[in-house]
Design goal:
By secondary structure, this protein is α/β, with parallel strands linked by helices. The protein is 23% helix and 21% strand.
Length: 467
């Protein structure tokens, strides 16, 4: 028992801190190499997996909290997100233990194209992942598959979308090399995906949400050419999303926008993928896993997108004939930082933009991360009311501002910050980013809960009042 941080005039009381989950030894629930995980018949009878990004150990926890069945994360090496926080060996052990304690799964990306001098360390990395007990590795390089089969044979192999698998014979080839799951190329149309499913018994996965690369299956050299940061080494600077204008050699200073018409296309300015509305079609096609892009994205993106797709999958599974996207799910997706949404190549025949590009593609951002709930105090005294919490702020918050608590079950509860204190029991008018504040809510939040707020400049935040 420990003392509760005194909230204004609240009498002294004691609390119990919620206990952390025990760290469990890893265990395997996957088939060994060479044993098919399921038949085409059984594929149709299992609810698809929701696979969310985990760019750090904290994000792995948040993804599981908001409904992910599995999380994919990268280690400090051999992962195509070199500038993500990523997980060191100890973090990977913790993430694996957490996943297994919850009955969920952890996949680790080993999807870099390794150079010759890296092969020795790659073997060590694969053995480490096998010892940790991760549920699968995500790879794109054939040499990595050979090394995994030889030196870490119990690791399940999932093929990355960068392998550019566009037909059932390619799926069969990779299955014969040991792949137990294939993430299909993003260039495929829905009808092609259905045909591949009909002729394949291996698990099939597809992206359903997130940023799209403008290059063929992500194999881009533009970043390496303009900023000496290779996308194929996990260092992409995303130059395809920069603002470009055309200048004619003999007319310096005259800038022309790069446009698209019915006679031609260009490679820049991809929109963001969003297939929430097509969840009924995708589930009917018998796909095994729906993947969310975004290991570099923040906690608000992760929580909002994961819970929206979690609810969509569950609702469609329970009643596929009556499935329709809920306005609340759409609100979640619209209130994260994103570019205009597109159905990409998967359902591009339904769109006038044909492929998800735009001459401008501005970033849309109406809300921001207010903070993350770090602690919920369980009060044991009759005089108290409500639930004292500790919030770690990520944005500047003002007295009177409305923040919204995103609950994993889909509820969103607004709350007006009428009073809050710092760790020294001082009442505050404003809380700065990356500080800790204490206040009481009439409902009970949960630890690691994500809290958002409208994006305002300065004191305009005071104008937003709770309904």
């Amino acid at each position: 028992m420990e003392s509760c941080p005194s909230f204004h005039s609240r009498p002294h009381c004691t609390i119990d801190r919620p206990k952390m989950l025990p760290r469990l030894k890893h265990f395997r629930r996957r088939p060994l190499y060479g044993q098919k995980s399921m038949t085409m018949e059984s594929t149709r009878k299992r609810k698809p997996e929701l696979l969310a990004p985990g760019g750090s150990l904290e994000k792995c926890n948040i993804a599981f909290l908001y409904g992910a069945d599995a999380v994919y994360a990268g280690g400090k090496n051999f992962s195509l997100r070199a500038f993500a926080t990523n997980l060191d060996e100890e973090d990977l052990q913790r993430a694996s233990a957490l996943a297994h304690s919850l009955g969920k799964r952890l996949y680790v990306t080993v999807n870099v194209y390794p150079r010759q001098h890296e092969l020795k360390n790659l073997v060590k990395h694969l053995k480490t992942l096998e010892d940790i007990g991760v549920d699968a590795i995500i790879v794109s390089d054939p040499g990595t598959i050979l090394l995994a089969r030889k030196h870490a044979p119990s690791l399940s192999i999932h093929l990355s979308t960068q392998a550019n698998t566009t037909n059932s014979m390619s799926v069969r080839f990779w299955e014969e090399q040991g792949a137990q799951r294939v993430n299909l190329a993003r260039e495929l149309a829905f009808e092609e995906i259905k045909l591949i499913r009909q002729h394949s018994s291996v698990e099939l996965e597809t992206f359903v949400h997130g940023a799209m690369c403008v290059s063929y299956s992500g194999r881009c050299l533009l970043s390496a050419a303009v900023s000496a940061r290779s996308a194929n080494r996990g260092e992409c600077s995303q130059p395809c999303r920069w603002s470009y204008r055309l200048v004619e050699e003999k007319r310096p200073g005259q800038y022309f926008p790069i446009l698209e018409d019915s006679m031609g296309t260009y490679i820049f300015n991809s929109k963001d993928l969003c297939l929430l509305e097509e969840m009924g079609n995708l589930m009917a096609a018998g796909l095994d896993s729906f993947k969310i892009e975004g290991r570099m994205k923040g906690a608000l993106y992760l929580a909002a997108v994961t819970r929206a797709y979690r609810q969509a999958i569950d609702c469609c599974w329970e009643n596929p004939e009556a499935f329709a996207p809920s306005p609340e799910w759409i609100t979640d997706l619209n209130q994260i930082s994103h570019r205009p949404y597109s159905k990409g190549f998967t359902f591009s025949h339904n769109e006038v933009d044909s492929g998800g590009v735009d001459s401008e593609t501005p970033i849309i951002k109406t809300h921001t991360l207010a903070g993350i709930v770090r602690q919920v105090f369980t009060v044991h005294c009759a005089e108290s009311s409500g639930f004292p919490i500790l919030l770690e702020t990520r944005s500047r918050l003002f007295k009177g501002q409305v923040i919204e608590f995103l609950f994993p079950d889909g509820d969103t509860i607004p709350f007006q910050l009428d009073e809050f204190q710092d760790g020294e029991k001082n009442f505050l008018q404003v809380a700065h980013p990356n500080t800790k504040i204490y206040f009481t809510t009439p409902f009970r939040p949960v630890e690691l809960q994500v809290v958002r707020t409208l994006l305002f400049e300065g004191d305009e935040a005071l104008r937003h009042k709770a309904p």
